Amino acid sequence: MTRQRKAVTRALAGCQDFVSAQELYALLVAGDHAIGLTTVYRALRELEADGGVDVVRDETGGRLYRLRPADGHRHYLMCRDCGRSRPVDSEVVEEWAGRITAETGFTAVEHTVELTGVCADCLPRADGVRPSGDEGEEPPCHWDHARAPRDPVRSCAS
User: Fold this and answer.
1) Cβ-contact 122, 130 below 8 angstroms
2) Which residues of 33-54 are buried (b: 16+ CB within 10 A; e: fewer)?
3) What pLDDT is attached to residue 149?
4) What are the phi and psi torsion angles at 23 (to 5°)?
5) Closest CA to 12 of 114, 23, 2
6) Phi and psi for 13 in degrees, rounded to 5?
7) Exposure string (b/e) for 117-145, b if CB count within 10 Å is 16 or more?
8) How far apart are the first and last CA of the chain?
9) Is the alpha carbon torsion for 11, 14, 18, 22 positive or negative?
10) How far, CA to CA in Å, does 29 sit from each of 11, 20, 24, 73, 141?
11) pLDDT tens-digit profile of 35-85?
């Protein structure tokens, strides 16, 4: 594993939600890592090929990455408003994919299941105030609501 790939892996480990390659690059540069954006993309491709990251697509089709847990591939429910994600029980999906693979004789079958919704923290209440989580605590990776909702910009803070 190269020094750059280790840096990318460490940066991903510090983010609890999915991040883009550009966000990861900005985080690394802000942390005084001498790394290029192309190197970040290459490291993410290698991590994906090795099964080290989970990948989802954002609303524009861009790829977002999250370090894969040691116990393997996961599926996530993602908030369309703030970008927070949480793993969901997907045993039934994995069993179904395995059954289809066996029945059809296909090999190297891959699948993507994306679930999106609006989390309780983002759901507007009647009084116009959103419920908040832990006071003063932001997750390591979160949506930056400073932009218009139709143009969300994700940020990753360490």
Assistant:
1) yes
2) bebeeebbbbbbeebeeeebbb
3) 35
4) -65, -40
5) 23
6) -65, -25
7) eebeebeeeeeeeeeeeeeeeebebbbee
8) 23
9) negative
10) 11, 14, 9, 29, 16
11) 999 999 999 999 988 889 988 888 788 899 989 887 777 788 888 888 787
Q: Please tell me whether residue 117 adopts helix, strand or coil conformation.
A: strand
Is residue 138 scored above 60 in pLDDT?
A: no
Do 80 and 100 contact (CB within 8 A), yes or no?
Answer: no
- Supply 128's token pair: 């116009």
Q: What is the DSSP letter of 19?
A: B
Maximum alpha-carbon separation in the chain: 56
Q: 135 with 147: CB under 8 angstroms? A: no
